[in-house]
Structure formats: structure tokens, C-alpha cells
């Protein structure tokens, strides 16, 4: 029997998650820190605090990607490039390349600004430790690769939305000489089409893996739980603007 259009629609795990907690998603990706970063009203202490912690996050991300790569069962057949596992490995390698570039950007920018020693000598905050623990849990042997990929996509989806929000608050008529380091370097880096393309590839891969599982099964419920944790962690990761040092 010919399938109807409704029957032919494949489930989208990422769309399901995005619509699950809309208020929490907005809170995580439209934080006052981002508005301040876009309008040159971010205190230097908060900028350096964020940069030091984001650098530690990026280092934890490297280990997380390595753990996910070890979960991908790579076929030895010549048609392996068509398998979801090879697609996952290929994309995870791209993510590693991307985070290596970001770490270099962090450190070169900090060195130019005279902050390198300061941002490299920080200890992980409670919020950063939460992410480190979250990454370790999502990559645990008991978790299917789907969970790890979902967590990876979720972090990048939130980051993309966050910095696109910041970009929307910027005065794009500013001359280069009038832009601060956030406006020149960091906001463009994560609101650019290239980063968005990477996030969309991750989303498509998550959906491909998600289609192998029942929408009512425990794997989708597990991904829902991890999504909620990511939203909490992302919101808490941004520095509190009025916090006293």
C-alpha cells in the first residue's frame, strides 16, 4: 500500500526537544550577559571570567568528543561512508578541528589583550564542573551514542542561538576601530554561517540516529532529560552581571 504523506514524515528528535521547554531555552540563550557583550557594556572582569571558564569548557569538550568517537562502530566495508556511524565519526572529527581553532582563538586573543596568564590560571567554576560532569555522563559506556550526540548538538544549538541573539543586539554600523573584542572576535565567530552549518549537520545526524528508536522509548526520554540539563547548565554558565567579586 502506498504510504500517505503523514506516514512518510520521519520523526525529528531535535524539533521535539526544541519545543519541549521554550521558556527555559529562551532563558539559556537570551541572557543579559549576551546583551551586554553586544553593546560594549560588559565589565572587563566578567569578560575575562567568561573567557577563562569557556576555555576550560573547550578543553573538556575535546575529551568528550574523543569518548564519542570511541563509541562509533566503524565498518570496514567500502561503503562505510554511507553508514550513520561513519557520518558520526566524520562530523565528530570536524567538531574536534573546530574546537582546536576556537582554543587557539581564545589564547591568541587573550595574549593580544594581555590576559593570557590570567585566563589560563583559573580553576573550574561550579558551572564549568557541571558541564565536565555532564559530558562524562553522556559519554558513559551505558549510554547509546544517540545520547552523546544529542548532548553535543544541544550545547552547540544553544551556543548558536545565544550568539545570534547577541549579534541581533549589535550595532552593525560600527566601524571596525570602534568595536571591542566581543564585537570584533567572539560574537562573529559563533553567529557566522559556517558555525550554523556545523550545528545543522549535527542536528541532522541526531535525527538520523533518533529515527532508529521508538519515539516513546526510553532513549528519547533519556534525550529529553539531557536536553533539560543542558538548558540549565547553559543558563548558569553565563556570568551573573551584578555579582560582586
From TrEMBL:
Alphabetical list of CDD domains matching this protein: TenA_E_At3g16990-like
GO biological process, one term: thiamine metabolic process
Residue ranges occupied by any Thiaminase-2/PQQC domain in the UniProt entry: 21-242
Pfam families: TENA_THI-4
Signal peptide limits: none
InterPro entries reported in the protein's UniProt record: Haem_Oase-like_multi-hlx, Polyketide-peptide_reg, Thiaminase-2/PQQC
PANTHER family according to UniProt: REGULATOR PAB1642, PUTATIVE (AFU_ORTHOLOGUE AFUA_3G11955)-RELATED (PTHR41813:SF2)
UniProt-recorded name of the protein: Thiaminase-2/PQQC domain-containing protein
Native source organism of the sequence: Hortaea werneckii (Black yeast)
Lineage: Eukaryota, Fungi, Dikarya, Ascomycota, Pezizomycotina
Amino acid at each position: 500500500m502506498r504510504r500517505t504523506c503523514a506516514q512518510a514524515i520521519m520523526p525529528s528528535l531535535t524539533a521535539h526537544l526544541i519545543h519541549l521547554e521554550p521558556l527555559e531555552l529562551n532563558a539559556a540563550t537570551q541572557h543579559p550577559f549576551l546583551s551586554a557583550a553586544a553593546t560594549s557594556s560588559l565589565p572587563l572582569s566578567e569578560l575575562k571570567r567568561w573567557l577563562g571558564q569557556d576555555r576550560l569548557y573547550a578543553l573538556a569538550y575535546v575529551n568528550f568528543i574523543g569518548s564519542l568517537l570511541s563509541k562509533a562502530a566503524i565498518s570496514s566495508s567500502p561503503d562505510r561512508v554511507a553508514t550513520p556511524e561513519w557520518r558520526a565519526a566524520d562530523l565528530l572529527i570536524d567538531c574536534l578541528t573546530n574546537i582546536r581553532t576556537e582554543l587557539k582563538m581564545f589564547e591568541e586573543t587573550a595574549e593580544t589583550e594581555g590576559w593570557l596568564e590570567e585566563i589560563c590560571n583559573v580553576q573550574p567554576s561550579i558551572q564549568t564542573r557541571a558541564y565536565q560532569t555532564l559530558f562524562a555522563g553522556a559519554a558513559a559506556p551505558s549510554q547509546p551514542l544517540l545520547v552523546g550526540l544529542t548532548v553535543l548538538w544541544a550545547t552547540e544549538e544553544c551556543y548558536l542561538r545565544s550568539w545570534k541573539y547577541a549579534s541581533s543586539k549589535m550595532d552593525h554600523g560600527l566601524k571596525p576601530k570602534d568595536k571591542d573584542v566581543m564585537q570584533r572576535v567572539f560574537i562573529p565567530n559563533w553567529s557566522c554561517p559556517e558555525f550554523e552549518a556545523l550545528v545543522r549537520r549535527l542536528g541532522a545526524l541526531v535525527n538520523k540516529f533518533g529515527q532508529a528508536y521508538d519515539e516513546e522509548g526510553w532513549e528519547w526520554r533519556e534525550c529529553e532529560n539531557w536536553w533539560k540539563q543542558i538548558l540549565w547548565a547553559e543558563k548558569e554558565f553565563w556570568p551573573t552581571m551584578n555579582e560582586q567579586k
